[in-house]
Amino acid sequence: MGAPMPMPATLLASRYNFSFVHGERVVLFNGRTGVSWVLEGEAAASLGAEWSSAVQAWSSEGWQADVLDRLIQGGFLVDPDFDEVAEVRRRFWDARREAPMVVTITTTLDCNLACYYCYEERSEQRLEAPDAATIARWVTDRLDASGKRSLHVDWYGGEPLLNPDLIEVLSQSLQALCRERGVAYAASIVSNGTLWPDDVGAFVARHAIREAQISLDGLEHEHNRRRRYRRQHRPDDGTSSFTKAVALIDALLDHVRVDLRVNIDPGNAGDAVPLMNMAREREWFGRRFPIVVAPARLAQYSERSKFMLDHGLDSRSFDALSSQMRSECGDSVRFEDPYVSNGQLQPRMSVCAALADDSVVFGADKALYRCGLQVSEPSRAVGKLHATSRRVIPIQPLNATVAAASDQQWWTTYDPTHESRCGGCSFLPLCWGGCPKHHLERDAQALQEQCGYWRRNLARYVPTPWIDAATLTREALAELDDTAQFRPGTSGSREACTGG
Predict the structure, then answer these.
(1) Range list of β-strands (E), 14-100
(2) No. of H helices and E strands in the chain?
(3) Is the pLDDT of residue 11 over 50?
(4) Residue 119 · residue 302 · CB < 8 Å
(5) DSSP character for 108?
């Protein structure tokens, strides 16, 4: 065995250190490693502040050996020759290559509801039997070429159950090809909950559904006001969309995980906490598959819903309301956070499906997309489901084709560590730049809101085992400042991201 490597005379404080004061204790947290360490004593606060304020040199002499080893192993102090950004970059590209194949299938863009904030066009475009065969061939070819050992199918719309025949045919075909190749198969579905068959257990089992997302827009009055039936889709029995969705959730929780998406805007914000009380009264938190709550701030999802910039709830108010919902439900109820997976603060190790090397969104317009939020924007398509068999004179200007090719190239090469706003940001290992779609579209406001979220909420997620979650939720925790996000000694654009 060779001699141990000599310790460098100086070490650098990591650019990804954060410190949080809780009374006489200080929690030191490193975003690259996910390690936290509780400091105590007279020097704890000042030491934590120094380690999390700048990338500066520290002498490796004078430390107790075990303390120094813990600081190095935790990533709080690093060798000057170690490139932390390059390590984050390596993880990002590994995650892109290793991600399971995710295939999102937009069965139709049609919907039976008329939600005022919807970003889709509600056209009658749909996928049909010949499309199902082409999709199955595409998935077969990609599985064989990639060697991926798992496939996840997400049924999407519009309302996907307005095209149940497509689901029946394509689901069985995809499951069969996975069985033939020994590939693990699972599915999820995003639905408004009004068109499901009576035997929901059989439907879930037949299509190997592991997760269903159902939305409620408040209690009955507000939900029905926002999610009213379109005239041609009104049910004969007059049952409201709220009644149908609630009854479906009641039935589903015996069979599958349900993510309850609670859509919130200024007009229904008062229903958010009472809705949690309703969920408790219906025993949704204590079922075989306890419901998972996913608060969602209604916002601009695409150009079609740009009007939401003037009608949405501001991000600070939404964060506060989400905290109230958590406090009302207690520690045992699982909340889904768009930034923190499973409520556990850890360095990112997985990517959005839009960035995964072998994933795709099949649009109901028979085009291929990278992001599901773009299926109503044909200019964002990156390919076509069916090859053109004859020469067609394009109706759209040539630059539309160029733009599609440019989008495909962008998705293929996107790397947040090279973004001017993200490369020098201390949140980088935790968020990998956030939503890539915002970067593609240069949506400065959305990007600032993402940064603002981390500034306001990072302290709530850093492990503090001596403080219960309810107390931590009520505490007025300090918001991280500009220096905490962009450290002296790093490169990056402070001006580009000042919080939201």
Answers:
(1) 17-22, 25-30, 36-39, 57-59, 77-78
(2) 16, 15
(3) yes
(4) yes
(5) B
